[in-house]
Write a structure and sequence with these properties.
Chain lengths: 115, 116
């Protein structure tokens, strides 16, 4: 068990470009969450998967954002036509449904800087 | 809707002194409550959690937290702080709907500075 991993750890891009982040959850975990954290703030929920199904999306997730989890294992988060306001840390977490507290374990995050 | 307030943005404490971080939550049912710690540039590490039972919860690194339903609080404490405890601490409330996932709502965080 190597924990939740995220790639890349850092991404610098120019406004208008598309970016894609990857999250690999803990292997037996069937739930996967994406959060966004801006400087000086707590993380905010973006979206959630159970297996391959995307079950909930926040209003923060504009139509430029899309997330997938095609085989119920790793997940990708894509941002199209990036804007400077997208600069943030993007955190992924995974958990196991059926466990008493559905405790989420977080990855190290991907820090996005949009120039 | 669920919400979390951490009233203290920064706390400075001397090494060896005790630490208490405040957390107040709003939630319409019995909450899941969590404390996470984040070192600079890193992800979140779970310190402890509460969902039922004993209202005093023990966690890792010598931390404990007490759930007080009457005060809607879940304060984090440590009797003697070490320099390595300097970090940002987040309180979070999760909804208790097992079939619908456990979306977390976080407070704004408290940054802890440790003086030698």
């Amino acid at each position: 068990d190597t924990g939740v991993s995220q790639n890349p750890r850092h991404k610098i891009t120019k406004r208008g470009q598309n970016v894609t982040f990857r999250c690999d959850p803990i292997s037996e975990h069937n739930r996967l969450y994406w959060y966004r954290q801006t400087l000086g703030q707590g993380p905010e929920f973006l979206t959630y998967f159970q297996n391959e199904a995307q079950l909930e999306k926040s209003r923060l997730l504009s139509d430029r954002f899309s997330a997938e989890r095609p085989k119920g294992s790793f997940s990708t988060l894509e941002i199209q036509r990036t804007e400077q306001g997208d600069s943030a840390m993007y955190l992924c977490a995974s958990s196991l449904s059926g466990a008493s507290t559905d405790t989420q374990y977080f990855g190290p995050g991907t820090r996005l800087t949009v120039l | 809707a669920q919400s979390v307030t951490q009233p203290d943005i920064h706390i400075t404490v001397s090494e060896g002194a005790s630490l208490e971080l405040r957390c107040n939550y709003s939630y319409g049912a019995t909450p899941y409550l969590f404390w996470y710690v984040q070192s600079p540039g890193q992800g979140l590490q779970l310190l402890l959690k509460y969902f039922s039972g004993d209202t005093l919860v023990q966690g890792i690194k010598g931390f404990e937290a007490e759930f007080k339903r009457s005060q809607s609080s879940f304060n984090l404490r440590k009797p003697s702080v070490h320099w390595s405890d300097a970090a940002e601490y987040f309180c979070a409330v999760g909804r208790m709907i097992k079939a619908a996932g456990n979306k977390l709502t976080f407070g704004g965080g408290t940054r802890v500075l440790v003086k030698p």
